[in-house]
Amino acid sequence: MNDAWQIANAHYLSLAVEWLRLCLARLAPTASVFVESKPQPDAPPSRLNRLFGRKPPAEQTPLLLPPPSSDDAQIAQLAEEMNLRERENPPPALIRLSEQLGLSRFESQVLLLCAAMELDTRIASLCARAQDDPQRAFPTFALALALFAEPAWEALSPDRPLRYWRLLEINQPAAQPLTASALRADERIVNYLKGLNTLDDRLAALLQPVAFDSETAAELPPSQERAAQEIIARWQRVQNGALPVAQLLGADASSKQSVAAYTARMLGRQLFRLDAAALPHHPAERETFARLWQRESILLPLALYLDAHESDRAAQGQDEPLKHFLARTDGILFLGTRENTILSMRANFAIEVAKPTPSEQQLLWHQALGERVNGFAAQLAAQFDLNPESIERIARETSNATIDDGTQFERAVWATCCAMTRPRLDALAQRIDPKATWDNLVLPIEQTQLLHQIAHQVGQRHTVYQEWGFGDKMNRGLGISALFAGESGTGKTMAAEVIANDLELNLYRIDLSAVVSKYIGETEKNLRRLFDAAEDGGAILFFDEADALFGKRSEVKDSHDRYANIEINYLLQRMEQYRGLAILATNMKSALDPAFMRRLRFIVNFPFPSASERKMIWQRVFPASMPKAELDYDRLARFNLTGGNIHSIALNAAFLAAQNKTPVTMPQVLTAMRAEFRKLDKPINEVEFRINEH
Length: 694
What we know:
Layout: H1 3-27, H2 49-52, H3 73-86, H4 93-101, H5 105-119, H6 123-130, H7 141-147, H8 161-164, E1 168-171, E2 182-185, H9 187-193, H10 201-204, E3 208-210, H11 222-236, E4 245-249, H12 253-266, E5 270-275, H13 283-299, E6 302-307, H14 320-328, E7 333-337, E8 348-352, H15 358-369, H16 376-383, H17 388-399, H18 406-420, E9 430-432, H19 445-459, H20 461-467, E10 480-485, H21 492-503, E11 507-511, H22 512-515, H23 522-535, E12 540-544, H24 559-577, E13 581-586, H25 594-597, E14 602-605, H26 611-621, H27 633-637, H28 643-660, H29 666-679, H30 686-689
Parallel strand pairs: 4-7, 4-8, 5-6, 6-7, 10-13, 10-14, 11-12, 12-13
Antiparallel strand pairs: 1-2, 3-5, 9-11
Helix pairs in contact: 1-3, 1-6, 11-12, 13-14, 15-16, 15-17, 17-18, 19-21, 23-24, 26-28, 28-29
């Protein structure tokens, strides 16, 4: 409200308090007179008539009328002037509140009586005199019944506005009648009557304001702006009753919140965010919170974004506060969830909200990084799936970097993207810091070429899918999936490391045997969390022990078999849709169902290394900086060992050399190899392990 309204409201409030003070003073000599209750008239029209079961009257009557002794000239004059000011547009705060919350004339007078205690220090003593009791220097309902015309007993019932909207507080000691108990106006309401319309402190402690800068409103990506316009159109079609909840679906919480903020701004509302987990659990606190929010959303142009993005992790029964809140409120409400949730307690509609499309992200990168980005924006948009907020943050973090040339700048941006999109998967996955390079990998040429092909496809997705339009012809998704098959130690994990290092991407190892749950639906939930968390940065997901989930498909004999197939199909579906590289690793390829393997783009078999390959592994296994004596690589290569075994032996031999403060020697390698054989329960031929002395 403007300054002119503030002045007018203050003047009206001054008149009302003076009118009340004179009425109390006149009542004092006849405090014992008790006024009989009369039926309560209809309240002024408001949006809450439906809530309290009223029909709007044909014509609004003045809020305050002179008391029965209308011959008092001063009281009559004040009442007349107040009645004139009540017709102003906009009206005083007391009149507006009465209309918005559905207070009758008598209820408004009771509220004025209670609020006046905070506005005029003389009211307390007048209350004591009017009640003929110096101990009652406060308003009571009995005083209000005696003081005002057309009193109504039901005004203080729990379902009437004074108590329903928590406008008054009642201090009722034990064994004291309700009518004789002290009444106190809510502090927030007193401030409202004075023209200070700010959010109730009890809500402000839980709610987080969400700003949407008007200067950047036009920068909401077109795909997300269409979602916002659809929400507005849905609400505009509602003729009567409460607005349905706009349920925003999707894996990115930031995008959903941005759409909600943009929509609220278009409707002239201030958006607040509340974590669904923060809703009160105690029934009484839950009810108070719902009523306070509903009250505030009437008194202020508010909208609420209820964030239930992580609600799938909540324990059973924790959704009861959410259901109660939705059932007890109306108005503009957004509910952010990952998937569609059935809300039987209130009408709703679902809107999918995704991150900006790759082309939109490419434009955002151009806007954020400026001329230095050149053609690098397309590569960033193809690899990383980011919202505008993340792109702007990365641009800020790299803008001050001291970078000599374009290549260094691109590497700095890429590294920042990888760091920012690194998912938090401690409970489900192990992050591997990739150090292995193509030179460390010893495989037959066919397998090496396949691995190079996988890496090239990950790096060239934008060209093939977007620029050349091949993505429009893909009906199963654009994910790149591979199966690495071979016994333990043949290089499957190292191959994943090499690809991740070459592409400069994050690598996560997931033990599928740990992800699979015996509880129905939990396996899919774990997999969904994995893929959703890794989606932003297109991290390489390495699913080890795939045979824990993939077995030869047998006839479905019970529900366990049926749900196992559902889990497998869900994993394959997510792999096909995943924007990064997903790798399944197994020691037993023969145990996998061929029908499942046909849905994978690459199958790479990791054979047991030949003697020549083992020799190459031995020659490369020791770091260049490590001191070595003359080693017989041909002899070492004769031992049937995998690359993983050779790495383990070399490491143990290095520790033996460090202990003896010598270069690593052939005897130390053979000693470490003997220990490895024992660990593997392999037979030991003493002739092969004999150390030749020269």
